[in-house]
Design goal:
The protein is an alpha/beta fold and 392 residues long. The protein has 15 helices and eight strands. The chain has an eight-stranded mixed beta sheet with strand order 1-2-4-3-5-6-7-8, with helices on both faces. It is elongated and about 85 Å long.
Length: 392
């Protein structure tokens, strides 16, 4: 019964993915031919919106597009990565010519160079002009096309920001040259390399050699990940490696987790509004997209500030939340808490009363805020009586 349910869910999920995919015919001057593209736009894609989306270019799109689009759909559903535009290039019988390489360098030549120019000079500019794309571009390649995508690193400005190499069949000195190139890049680059213990032996060996060379690279602009999957073949490693690659490349985009809280936020020197602002500015700078801070993350920061006994952060997080969403009671409520805990009773009451006319938070309603106000007014009255007694 469980297998039937899982199979049914898988069919429904695949059906959803396929229903969002469209095909386009692209007439290329560089190739002097028409190429078919598979394109998947985000579920709620709006061409009139200012929202931008990273672009994932999938080589060998006839078999690799669906695993990529399925993984992206899964991770965006749980807000683990930004909604992205996925473009699969159908290569089929042209694959051999598209990947044609120099046997010494491993770099594309002749028909391979024409295919390279098609991607860099025609396809990507076309996508940027037609769709709401961000500056963040990802290349996904397997086997021969895994070797090919590395060529985009060698342009003056790398064409892609992230490279997902799924069991690449490195040709010539490509592996060595990649390590050398990564050592001197100024642009921030994400580089993911995967093999498996069941991979084709010569491919596995060259990948390990390349991994050793890249691990020795000392370049702050490089974020490098390597995986050797267990029990997978040259082909079955694709799905597991894609999951790990997306998870690691878009790690910064994810909501705050326990690891980041304990390792980075708890020991952070400074107020937590600075930490979260810097984090989200980096998301904007890196992925070229604006992501608002969620109320859940603001609430986590408040909890951390309380654990740190950091009242200043409570106030500044409230102020930041107010600036982002002045219609929500969240920011005003925590600014009131700051005033209350600092003994500024009149200011706290005033702020709590201001929160009453704003939108409720998910976990705190107007009735709860009123209990604060009533409690503070009792304290204020008691203080006034004590002061009168003192005067007598």
């Amino acid at each position: 019964m469980k297998r039937v349910l899982l199979f049914t869910c898988a069919l429904l999920f695949c059906g959803t993915v396929l229903s969002q995919m469209k095909r386009e015919q692209f007439e290329s001057r560089k190739l002097n031919a028409t190429r078919e593209l598979k394109i998947q736009l985000p579920d709620n894609y709006d061409p009139e919106s200012d929202l931008k989306h990273p672009v994932i270019i999938v080589f060998d799109g006839e078999y690799l597009f669906e695993p990529v689009s399925g993984q992206v759909s899964f991770q965006t559903h749980f807000d683990e990565m930004p909604e992205s535009i996925i473009v699969g290039i159908i290569q089929g019988k042209e694959r051999f010519y598209d990947s044609y390489f120099d046997e010494v360098t491993g770099l594309p030549i002749e028909s391979g160079k024409r295919f390279y120019d098609f991607v860099a000079e025609e396809l990507i500019p076309y996508l940027d002009a037609k769709y709401n794309t961000s500056k963040f571009k990802v290349a996904v390649g397997h086997n021969l096309m895994g070797n090919f995508i590395n060529a985009f690193l060698f342009s003056k400005e790398p064409v892609f920001d992230s490279y997902i190499n799924l069991s690449p069949d490195f040709k010539g000195s490509m592996g060595v040259n990649v390590a050398k190139r990564l050592a001197f890049l100024d642009n921030e680059i994400f580089y993911y390399l995967a093999t498996s213990d069941g991979d084709i032996s010569h491919i596995n060996a060259s990948i390990h050699e390349t991994n050793t060379a890249i691990k020795a690279v000392d370049n702050k602009a490089l974020t490098y990940y390597f995986d050797e999957l267990k029990g997978d073949s040259h082909y079955t490693l694709v799905t597991g490696a894609l999951s790990k690659a997306m998870d690691k490349i878009f790690e910064l985009y994810k909501p705050l987790d326990d690891k980041e809280i304990e390792e980075k936020i708890m020991p952070y020197e400074g107020t937590l509004d600075d930490y979260i602002t810097d984090r989200y500015n980096r998301i904007d700078d890196l992925f070229g997209i604006f992501k608002p801070i969620s109320e859940e993350e603001f609430e986590k920061l408040i909890e951390i500030a309380n654990r740190r006994e950091d009242l200043e952060s409570v106030y500044k997080i409230g102020k930041l939340a107010n600036a982002q969403n002045p219609n929500s009671a969240f920011g005003t409520y925590y600014m009131a808490q700051y005033a209350e805990k600092n003994g500024k009773t009149k200011k706290a009451v005033k702020l709590y009363e201001s929160a009453l006319v704003l939108e409720d938070m998910s976990h705190i309603d107007k009735e709860f805020i009123m209990t604060h106000i009533e409690g503070l007014k009792v304290v204020e009255d008691d203080t006034e009586i004590d002061e009168e007694d003192g005067e007598e």
